[in-house]
Amino acid sequence: MKKTFFRPFAAAFLLAAPLLFASCSDNSDPEPEDDNELITTVRYTLTPVSGGTDIIAEWKDIDGDGGTAPTIGTLRLAPNTAYTGTVTFLDETKTPVEDTTEEVREESDEHLVIYTPSPISLMTVTRTDKDDNGLDVGLSTTVQTGAAASGTLQIQLRHQPEGKDGTSAPGSDDANVTFPVVLQ
Amino acid sequence: MFSRFVTVLLFAVLCLGIVHTSAAQDECNLSLAGRITDHESRQGLAGTTVVLRPGQQATQTDAEGNYHFHVCPGTYQLEVRFIGYATEQAEVRVNGAVIRNFQLHPDAVTLRGATVRGERVQAPVPQASSTLTGQALQQTRGQALGEALQKLPGVSAIQTGPSIFKPMIHGLHSNRVTIMNNGVRQEGQQWGQEHGPEIDPFIASELTVVKGAASVRYGTDAVGGVVLVQPKALRDSAGIGADVQLVGMSNNGMGAASATVDGNLRRLPALSWRLQGTLKQAGNTRTPDYRLDNTGFWERNFSAAVGWRKDNYGVEAFYSQFNSRLGILSAAIVGNRTDLEAAIARGRPATDAAFSYQIDRPYQQLQHDLAKLTGFVKTGNGGRLTATLANQRDYRDEYDVIRSSSDAGLRNLPQLSYQNYTTTADVVWEHPPVGSFRGSVGLSGTYQYNRYAGGTRQFIPFYTNWTGGGFVIERWQHERLLLEAGLRLDHRDLRTRRLTRGFATDSSSYYGVERNRFQYWTPSASLGAVYDATPHLTLRADAGLVQRAPAANERYSQGVHSGIYEEGYDISRPAGAPPLQPETSYNVGVTATLHDNPRLNGELTVYQNIIDGYIYQVIGEPITTIQGTFLPWRFQQTDAVFRGVDATLNYQLTPNWLLNGKAAMIRARNRTLDSYLIYVPADRFEVSLRRDWTGQADARFSHSFALVRGTAVRRQTRVPGSEYDPQAAPDGYGLLGAEVGATLRLGRTPVEVSLTGSNLLNERYRDYLNRFRYFADEMGRNVTLRLHIPLNFSN
After folding, report:
1. Smallest Cα–Cα separation from B706: which of B739, B667, B681, B671?
2. Is the ipTM beyond the 0.85 threshold?
3. Residues 548 to 577 of B: which have CB under 8 A from any A CB?
4. N or C, which terminus of chain B has less Cβ within 10 Å?
5. Quick count: other Cβ atoms within 10 Å of Cβ A57?
6. CATH: 1.10.101.10, 2.60.40.1120, 3.10.520.10, 1.10.1370.30. Which one for B2-104?
7. Virtual torsion, Cα A72, A99, B563, B173, nearest 10 deg
8. pLDDT, tens only, B624-639
9. Subunit contact B392:A161, Cβ cutoff 8 A
10. What is the model's pTM?
11. How near does any CA of chain A get to the CA of B577, in Å?
């Protein structure tokens, strides 16, 4: 009897052994995280149609949600002027910096960029690019500013994996930032 | 010997594949056993006569009051006679090994002859406890663990859509409810409200909930209570048996099949084994008006146990693995505050889903395995030493909706991937009785470490957690009074390594690692009493003190998780403020139980749990992120109190008609803010009427029953201010349910068949405790078909 007693014991240890050995490596440090969907920076670049230097504003939150407050640039534009606009979404925690705009362009039938000036008279933003279904995308825009004033411009990147219909309703925000705007 | 064991295992697996009901049953070797005790002294009664009908077999109990029969499957009448006591009779249905204990009441002429100091008596715990077993448990087959437990008064569940149920006892959940899976404390990512327990409920032959703090025995996390998931005991009579469960649901097309095979060798009666496996698959749930997109799920689970048991020692090895993928209602993952408000305003998901078993992002992918080795040795004179060593691995991957052309999309990577390893060791010594004292002394230790996979977000930091504790519980019994006192001391040593990201002046980002260590000694104490006021009325009272040290998530969780931004206390605590402190619970409970009466039986529990420094999540000031404004759920501490009543009443109208009523009410206050707490269960009432038909046990149909049930849940009006909840509590609701069932005899196999209908009126409703109540209605009408097929193969 004594002999057989140890055999189930041995079998049990064989069953448990892989788990016992699994629990031996608790000294590692966390690796830099690789949030594969992170957007740290929204950059809006405006080029005067009549020529001149580009105006760039950046909304940047390098440490992700929470923590240090984001840095928010101001869009300083001339009144009653036409611009062409390009929006860029970046992940600046990566080296080299990852340009998420490329992914958005590849999946343009699932994305929509929405521009909401406040007050509404501040400027008119018109999307100039279309996806395969003929719906707006909004990575490229034209901007016509109004009379001298100040206000804000909200830029939303809507991810609409289902039911993109040209309106803002489907999906959820991948980015949603608000820039101060000064027209002078 | 070992190779023969393997052969038997293989044979058993083959048997599982071929459901072969009429295997030669020349011998009927099911064990029907139990213990006869004096109801008042709880001592075993030696020499009691136990008569088995049909057949008129009779036996006498041994020195400790135990009796034992070997029988065929079927239904039997047991009669228990002992001079000086009232004769007891009971009907027992035998499908597998059955244990049926009797407590005899002294007759008018009391003869206290036999006073035998017997084996360990599982004396009743002073806390209220409820058990789901037998047919009541059978009628929950196919449901998630947390869903099934809601049948017990005082037990509710924090729900996340139709598939994730987190058990809640007397208003407390997650870090405050301990789940003991086959004697091992379940450890994983149990902090998450949307993390259901990674346990296959089909493994349980008994689900017990201890309602109220049982921390001295089960550790500091048992502040709210304990859920005990108990598998069937290993077979103790020679032969091979099997048990097949089949479940189908109409609403979501769920199908589940679970089978258990167990055996005991004739030539090695000490060796027993058991194999068990479950497959489950469900599609999109339908509410009365629409289907919920992406709410399908599947489970694939198995377990194996082998035990060697002699009178004086025994050892058991157990391994189980749980695998599941759970689709998350896509309409519920909304992101920022504007999207949340838009979803609430819309009142229902934007898209109408078709029926499908397809699971897309977002979903959770889970794996949990448990290996356990346990053994006992009797240390003479009734003492017993038990040791348990267990290892658990818990993997939880959460897949968010992402751009499919991104790197993670192309490689289908998860966005959150936690890994948790836990080793637990427990030693308990039940000392031999000393006078009227019985008791146990125990030591327990936990080593745990938690990681997230490279390439995923840090939500919970790396941590390593050592806890060690020791306890003493002593019971003193004299006649009808049992007193119990317990003391426990725990030490928790939590070390965290948290990644921090900064932004250097040259605008390049850098990483750092913030290391912290938190050490606490936390005491627990309890006092309890059980008093048998009459043979049919038992009174229980318990009082306890528990201190619980904060867990890693309460300190350092940070980020967006299932569309909700969560933040641990120590992430955003004001500069100079001390870190999160342990919480202290002062709890009392009183229970009166009417039992073994011919007509009226029931139970009433009244409790109060004062928790100073109660750690809870509360919506804070909105925070700005690049994805817009989020309402952060921050961990805070406050002083809280939970008070409540649970009641159950059974009234046997006639021998065949049973009326049952249940009620649970709870009132919780935030004492610091003089306000209410969020996510406290609303008042709940249930009434059912059941008709049983007694028939010949050997008839083709027997044990038929039918039941109608009405459930009413009031609107929760005791809620904190509207700034603490994105939407007001939903209206109350009433639901109608019904069950019919019977045992169908196929050859010698008694097949249990039942049909259960829930929400028969297809009522449109939302439950306050469902975290998806902002987005969608609850499940509509559902009809469940259940088949239970016990099989017996002799070898």
Report:
1. B739
2. no
3. 558-560, 565, 567, 571-572
4. N
5. 21
6. 2.60.40.1120
7. -100
8. 888 888 889 999 999 9
9. no
10. 0.84
11. 17
